[in-house]
Automatic annotation (TrEMBL):
It comes from Actinomadura rudentiformis. The gene is pseI. SMART domains: SAF. It comes from the Bacteria. GO terms for molecular function: N-acylneuraminate-9-phosphate synthase activity. This is Pseudaminic acid synthase. It is an enzyme of class 2 (transferase). NCBIfam families: PseI. Residues 300-355 form the AFP-like domain. The keyword Transferase applies. InterPro entries: AFP_Neu5c_C_sf, Aldolase_TIM, PseI-like, PseI/NeuA/B-like_N, Pseudaminic_synth_PseI, SAF, SAF_AFP_Neu5Ac, SAF_PseI/NeuA/NeuB. GO terms for biological process: carbohydrate biosynthetic process.
Length: 355
């Protein structure tokens, strides 16, 4: 990753989001409220308690996403693991977050120190979210091809986060160009596999540095795999933002529960992703500051028996032991058979001056 991209950061609320910052963890509420505002508020509280940085909603209704038609084109394939055979309208009617919930959810998030923002799915959602003071917008993978929507979101001047599930390079390029031409100056592009749940082997994390270089942006990862292994690996490959769906308890069910984290898992993601980021260091080989004490205890040659002047060096009176301070172990062949110039006490590091 070139230095300019690596050093660029986006500001989301009070947070700097970039390669020089700890990973920005976004908890996606989605449909895991199960139709209950109290549960939705409890999820916000759990997200805050877990130490995440943001909670994200999805702002749509079934009627803003599709129409109520039950034909094969408007149904999810029968083979889908979670939603097979369901009509789009029915699924979105169940999963949507009522618009009159947004204000109390945003308010609870702010009270708990979280950034609250959303994915708008049509122009009316952007107008609604602007009135709520949303600090950023997320463009979902399926909406990446909706360039008018991207231009409208970008025109607000807010940071834009674009997810790239299913997209080819040309489609991503068109979306990025649309955002920039509409005035977006703060843009994050997310790697994503838009299957629910997603298999880890479909993660394609090695594309993250390529996304950063190709589009000159900081990158993140929107993850739908089970657990936290994939997003932590994404951090190692440059992801500065991680998005995961969150629920109170997978056993409670819900449209997204199968690929959502429970609060304890979210807390582990916050901790372990930051550890992964802190471990990256720089592209150089050599001892680290934390190894300074360890360097003192490398092996070297020491006198291990009291010797008199004129005695020869043997493998009985000179050995390779810890600590450092003497000649390197490989020097033994060069000193073996030499005679000591004076009396030497046991525990003396071997140096050329002894002979």
């Amino acid at each position: 990753m070139n230095e300019a991209v690596a050093n660029r950061a986006v500001t989301v609320g009070p947070h700097s989001v970039g390669a020089g910052d700890r990973p920005f963890i976004v908890a996606e509420l989605s449909g895991n409220h199960n139709g209950d505002l109290r549960r939705a508020l409890a999820i916000v509280d759990a997200v805050a308690d877990a130490g995440a940085h943001a909670v994200k909603l999805q702002t749509y209704t079934a009627d803003t996403l599709t129409i109520d038609v039950d034909s094969p084109r408007f149904r999810i394939g029968d083979g889908h693991e979670l939603w097979g055979g369901r009509s789009l309208y029915e699924l979105y009617e169940q999963a949507h977050t009522p618009w009159d919930w947004h204000a109390p959810l945003f308010e609870r998030a702010r009270e708990r120190g979280l950034v609250a923002f959303s994915s708008p799915f049509d122009p009316t959602a952007i107008g609604f979210l602007e009135a709520l003071g949303a600090p950023a917008y997320k463009i979902a993978s399926s909406e990446l091809v909706d360039l008018p929507l991207i231009r409208l979101a970008a025109g607000t001047g807010k940071p834009l986060i674009i997810s790239t599930g299913m997209a080819n390079v040309g489609e991503i390029d068109a979306a990025v160009r649309a955002a920039r031409e509409a005035g977006c100056e703060q843009l994050v592009v997310l790697g994503c596999t838009a299957s629910y749940p997603a298999a880890p082997e479909d993660g394609n994390l090695r594309a993250l540095p390529l996304l950063a270089e190709t589009f000159d942006v900081p990158v993140g990862y929107s993850d739908h795999t089970p657990g936290i292994g994939v997003p932590i690996a994404a951090v190692a490959l440059g992801a500065c933002l991680i998005e995961k769906h969150v629920t109170l308890d997978r056993a409670d069910g819900g449209v997204d529960s199968a690929f959502s984290l429970e609060p304890a898992e979210l807390a582990a993601l916050v901790v372990e992703s930051e550890r992964a980021w802190r471990s990256l260091g720089a592209a150089r080989i050599g001892p680290r500051p934390g190894e300074r004490e360890g360097l003192r205890f490398r092996r070297s040659l020491y006198v291990v028996e009291d010797v008199r002047a004129g005695e020869p060096v043997t493998d009985r009176n000179v050995r390779s032991i810890r600590p450092a301070g003497g000649l390197p172990p490989d020097a033994f062949e060069s000193v073996c058979g030499r005679t000591f110039a004076g009396d030497v006490r046991r525990g003396t590091p071997v140096t050329w001056e002894l002979f």
